[in-house]
């Protein structure tokens, strides 16, 4: 197996999907772009485009687990469905990462910025959390 060099982080949402790129050699992640969640085929096409353009080796998707650790929210169910479809339709390993507080942290970092920018920063924070723990 090839050594993992670049990782795509995803913050899945019903309206928007934030993405970030992580560079494992420096353990740094940067916001990439926000994808409008029109439907799965559209989103999959955009993710495949990013994977190809950026030469991605691994995908990390944030799981919206509540602060209490509850795993029964509607958003979590929708994210799990997205992850299952992604695993079937893309030829890369897809890993789940707890994303508790990532959107709130992203909002704090952006201090009132409007729109979807929070989504790609949340993806960056999810990815950074994964890379900080990873021993790949």
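Q: What amino acid sequence fits the structure above?
A:
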């Amino acid at each position: 197996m090839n050594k993992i060099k670049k990782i795509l982080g995803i913050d899945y949402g019903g309206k928007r999907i934030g993405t970030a790129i992580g560079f494992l050699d420096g353990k740094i992640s940067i916001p990439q772009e926000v994808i409008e969640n029109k439907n799965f085929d559209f989103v999959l096409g955009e993710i495949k485009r990013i994977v190809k353009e950026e030469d991605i080796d691994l995908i990390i998707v944030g799981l919206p687990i509540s602060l209490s650790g509850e795993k029964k929210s509607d958003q979590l169910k929708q994210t799990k469905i997205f992850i299952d479809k992604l695993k079937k339709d893309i030829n890369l390993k897809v890993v789940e990462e707890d994303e508790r507080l990532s959107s709130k942290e992203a909002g704090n970092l952006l201090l009132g910025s409007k729109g979807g920018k929070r989504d790609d920063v949340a993806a960056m924070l999810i990815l950074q959390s994964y890379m900080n723990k990873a021993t790949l």
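Q: And what stands out in the fold?
A: The chain has a mean pLDDT of 84.
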